[in-house]
Structures are given as structure tokens and as C-alpha cells.
Amino acid sequence: MFDTADIKKASAEMEARYKPRADALRQTQEQMAQVSQRLEQGTGQLTPQAESELRAQGTRLQKEAQRVQEDLQADVQADARRSCPKPLCA
Q: Which of 5, 61, 63, 90 would bridge with 32, disulfide CB 3.0–4.6 Å?
């Protein structure tokens, strides 16, 4: 049976393993928010080309964030399944 120390250790290891990817996801989400804010603030002031470029950048960032989030979630779930004792996870 696992004790609290084992669980805390495993949790800390998983957090350390996935923190860089989670940080990258957070950064991409912040960039998306900045693009959205620039679009809102630039309404009527941006050239059509600038607006189109910002929208394209926002779309690229959104796709990237979704891909990273899905990959990260799948990896965390797979890692959790591998580290969970069979009697508890069955």
C-alpha cells in the first residue's frame, strides 16, 4: 500500500516533469489574450491587413494551445495510469 509520502513524491515528480509544458501552454494562452486585446483596442484603427494578420496569429496560437493541452492531458493521464497500483485503479 502507498503511504502519503509516496503519493506526495509521485505528485512532485509528475509536476516537475510536466511543468515546462504547462508553463508553455500558459504562455501561449497569455499571447492569445494579448492578440485578442490588441484586436479589440484596434477596432477601427487597424488596417485590414494588420487586422487579418492579428486574426491569423490568434488562430495559430489557439491551435497550438489546443494541441499542447491535449498532448499534455493525454501524457498526464497515461503517466497516472502507469503509476497507479492495480488494485486501486482496477
A: 61
